[in-house]
Specification:
This protein is α+β, with helices and mostly antiparallel strands. It has a domain of 67 residues: 2-Layer Sandwich (Trypsin Inhibitor V, Chain A). It is built from two helices and three strands, in the order H-H-E-E-E. A three-stranded mixed sheet has the order 1-2-3, with no helix packed on it. Strand 2 and strand 3 form a beta hairpin. The protein is elongated and about 95 Å long.
Length: 129
């Protein structure tokens, strides 16, 4: 009886070793190695040596996100007031009121005025986008 049980146990162990997962190799690093201190990236060298300049799209506010393309500076006196103060902004530009923690689309519209609120519904910041 003991020999049969030992033979069955040995067979089960042999069977289970075939079910073991294959050893996992470590994944390669996701980031490229850093350049040594003092090294200059090739793009910077190219610009310093008269290489290609950045492309100018001709549309102001899209690349540099100029701070006041939409005229937000005219409404900075509303910062600190309740959100209702932004309901009737005297402007023909689109206005987007963004509650605290709200999910908003990420497209950048230079002439749109964003009114950002804090958790209490007070105007925290007014900017373009």
């Amino acid at each position: 009886m003991f020999r049969v049980s030992a033979a069955i146990c040995a067979g089960i162990l042999l069977f289970l070793t075939g079910c073991a997962p294959a050893p996992i190799e470590p994944a390669p690093p996701l980031t490229p190695p850093l350049a040594p201190p003092g090294a200059v990236a090739p793009a910077e060298n190219q610009a310093a040596e008269g290489g290609d300049a950045p492309v100018d799209s001709g549309i102001r506010g899209l690349q540099e996100r100029e701070p006041d393309v939409c005229g937000a500076s005219a409404f900075q006196d509303l910062v600190g007031q309740p959100a209702e103060a932004a309901a009737n902004l005297p402007t023909d530009k689109p206005v987007r009121v963004i509650p605290f923690g709200a999910i908003v689309t990420q497209e950048y519209i230079p002439n749109r005025i964003n009114v950002r609120l804090d958790p209490e519904g007070i105007i925290l910041r007014i900017d373009c986008g």
